[in-house]
């Protein structure tokens, strides 16, 4: 039983160990500080000095632990900042945060301290004398307290004493000035003060120009204030009763954002203008940034100020232009070479900061550099030698103690005769003939990224660049590409070729150059595709005999092979219009337009064939042009004929003669009322005979004869003319006949009654 209790107790302890939670808390770590430096020891109002020292972190430190560094009350950090603290091997040991309100710098350690023992590094930051605490010139203690605020426990930095010159104030006559301060990473804020004397000044213009390369104004950062300048207790001008008047003025910023001007107009009070300037590269601690401002009234210059501001990085470090670069020039045998001339170029800005010329010992030195990246470019090699390639100097090349970077540069002897080559390419254009000097090509030095030559093709498509001369063995690579000229209808070839020229010394005083790609390989093929063009074919339709109807007749468009392209109908106005034809290639196209005979009754169709020629020409500039040619006759004429009918006409003729009336067999004599029928057509053939409908001939004895005459169209065989008595030449209508009878009857009756009375 005792054994079971013992095992149970052991099990509880074991399980407790498994399920227990270990709470790790951050600790405060004391670091060891050594090799302290104070640079400079003498500073003025708002000027800074640099604290630098080596540090060692104890092995007990772990990720998340902190160390708090405190400044004495008389000092402060220049600005609130966050930055990394590095070990001697370049790794981030801790994250640092400087707080100007508490005058404390807090280090929070990374996991680097968990992975490494004996962690050491170097720390640098800048401090200023707190002008709110120290009002006049005096010596200030330069100490730093680690995890305490007790000044007596402070670590002495450098000599331990800062000789503070105190505020010197500003002249009463100062009427225009500017200054700048580091306000953020790669950013400087400037302040311009105008008209401390509160003069009445007309037509005031403030102009400003950034003199350092790689910087530009931050849009939206401009602020203009108006107020009254007064001296404070430190004898410095300050703007009181200020009001923000930014909205009342227009800041005219240049396109490249490196200059501006603002017209304040007529003023009688003080003005302050603030704005930010930001670099497009990483500024180095202590780097000088130049800015120029001017103050004018009309054409009168009233003031100007050139401000040189030293940038301070996040740690407050401002080592500045305290670094040097030394070179030694030798040949391949190690013999010193004199007379080699170099330019020193700051890579961040592309600015030439100085030159070097080697002496008899082959050495040269340039001072006043920032701890930054530089390019050493040999512009004049020693006599009999070839200029070497560019040499890059990195920030890490500068020794942190001596602040010197050293480079040994070897020159090769110059061959007796240089090698020369001409790089070539081939131009191909698909879709039309290539023109001389039509396309442009560039030859680029790939290493220097410089355009060496720009040429155009000849009529055969050959592209030849200028002759290249090589004075030293090596590999030289060039990029060949075509310039996209944006010509209409051209699809450019975007391929780029890297052509390497290998130069070797043949050992006989002659350099030999071999090109790895010639014009048979370096080819650029463009495609020419002009914009398609449309053409519409039309003819006219005419119908005689009756009005034309919309869509009445069909017309067929055929290509030159006889294939039907389209069938359309006329409109009511006789227009026959086919759909648009699309042409993508310059050529001659022949079409035929015919009318489809669909057998409409009483219509005679026109068998006309209209031959149309469409000529498509290319203007060579990406556009096709269509020309349509019609024959003289492009009109289809159909005829409509009304259907023919046959009618029978009865003609009443009264003939009076002394002899009996003789009629032909085609004549019928009627004694009753005459029947009259008009005839539409009268046809006369062979012998001339006059046939008169409703003709009255008067003789002594009236005889009524009715004859039937058959009239036919001209399409029937002619009818033999009837034989009649000679015509008297007198004709009248039936109404004339009736009138005559009435008069005769009236005369008879009158004669009768007259005789009866007698």
Automatic annotation (TrEMBL):
Record localization: Secreted, Cell wall
Signal peptide: 1-26
UniProtKB keywords: Cell wall, Collagen, Membrane, Peptidoglycan-anchor, Secreted, Signal, Transmembrane, Transmembrane helix
Biased composition annotated in UniProt, kind: Low complexity: 642-716
UniProt-listed PROSITE patterns: GRAM_POS_ANCHORING (PS50847)
SUPFAM superfamilies on file: Bacterial adhesins (SSF49401), Cna protein B-type domain (SSF49478)
Domain (Gram-positive cocci surface proteins LPxTG) ranges: 725-758
Membrane topology: Peptidoglycan-anchor
Name assigned to this protein: Collagen-binding protein, peptidoglycan linked protein (LPXTG motif)
Organism expressing this protein natively: Streptococcus suis
